[in-house]
Every structure is written in structure tokens, then in C-alpha cells.
Amino acid sequence: MASTLEPLGPILYQGVTINEFSGQVNFANARSAGLSAVYIRATAGCDYADANLSRYAESASNAGLQVGYYHYLNAQTVPEARAQARHFLAAIRDLPMDLRPALLFETLTGLNIDEANTIALAFLETVEYASGIVPILYTDARSANLLWTSSIANRYPLWVIDLNADAPEVSDALWSGWTG
User: pLDDT tens for residues 2-21?
Assistant: First the structure.
């Protein structure tokens, strides 16, 4: 059963996610409007990096925003997930980073729940091992309730996409709270 989860900690950021399709972003105006964080889609797959990644990262940091990055995973195998994790880390290596790296995994065509969890776990573990930072899982409330298993929930914090709620409605059987 889903319940409204509480945040895992006292620090809450008002933020936004962006990607190259966001166009020109005025980060100083965003900061003035009360935003304090931005997550930038850095990469997708094994060979795509956001065309505006460096510009967005530097501009957001210079405006005083906390900066983080997410990867759009589309792997179908564990080796692909590990390769995508390495690609993601290479893309963000020299950029300012204040927030945990994040994984967004929505393209699950042809995968069952166990395969999706194994692939996501391979990505998350590779990022954690290579960077020394525990990444977060960026997912919607429905997937947090139905897709992800304790192998992920016990190790990786939850960032829930729920645009219409102050707090996500997620099963407290797996997740003890949310971090984003």
C-alpha cells in the first residue's frame, strides 16, 4: 500500500530538471525566483551527451545553484549498463557537482522486473564504485511502488517524479523516505 513518505533529511531544495531541449535558461532568474538546485540530463545511452551540458553546468553553478546530473539509461544488458555508467561519469568528470548523480530508467521494453532491477543495479553500482558517491534513483511514484525491488531500495536513495504532490505516495514497505 502506498503512503505519503517523508523526506529523509532536513535539507530541501526547490529545483528543476533540464536538458538541451530546455533552450536558453536564465539561471540567475531561477535563483532569484527561489530555486536552489538544478539537475541536468548529462547523457543517454553509450554515446549521447547533452549538447548544452557544460554551458548549463557552469552557468547554473555561477548563479549559485546546487548542480547535479542524471543519466537516461536505455541498456538491455548488464554490460551495456556498466558502459553507460562509465560514459556518464566521463561526461560529468570535470563539471561542478553538488548533488548526487542520478539514474533515470524508463525504457524497459522487453525487460521483466528482475532484468530491469539487475540492469539498474549494475549502473548504480558502477557509478558508486567509480565515483565514491552513492547515486540516487530518479523514478515516478508508480515505478517506485511496482517496479523497483529491495535490492535497489535498500541501497539507493529515492528521487520521485510526482509533479502534483508535495510528498510522493510511495510504499513504505520498500522506501523509508525520499531524497528528491
Answer: 444 444 555 556 778 888 88
Q: Which sign, positive or negative, has the C-alpha torsion 164, 166, 169, 175?
A: positive
**Which residues neighbour 118 within 8 Å (Cβ) at sequence distance 6 or greater?**
78
- Return the SS3 of 98: coil
Cα separation, 55 vs 66, whole angstroms: 15
pTM above 0.90, yes or no: no
The pLDDT tens digits for 120-136 are: 999 999 999 999 999 98
For residues 62 and 27, the answer to whether their CB atoms sit within 8 Å is: yes
Going by C-beta distance under 8 Å and a sequence separation of 6 or more, which residues neighbour residue 64?
31
Q: In the numeric block, which cell numbers belong to residue 99?
A: 548533488
If DSSP codes are grouped into helix, strand and coil, which group holds residue 48?
strand
Distance of alpha carbon 167 from alpha carbon 180, whole angstroms: 10
Secondary structure element (H or E) that encloses residue 39, with its range: strand 37-44
- Per-residue burial over 34-57, b if 16 or more Cβ lie within 10 Å, else e, is ebebbbbbbbbbeebbbebbbebb
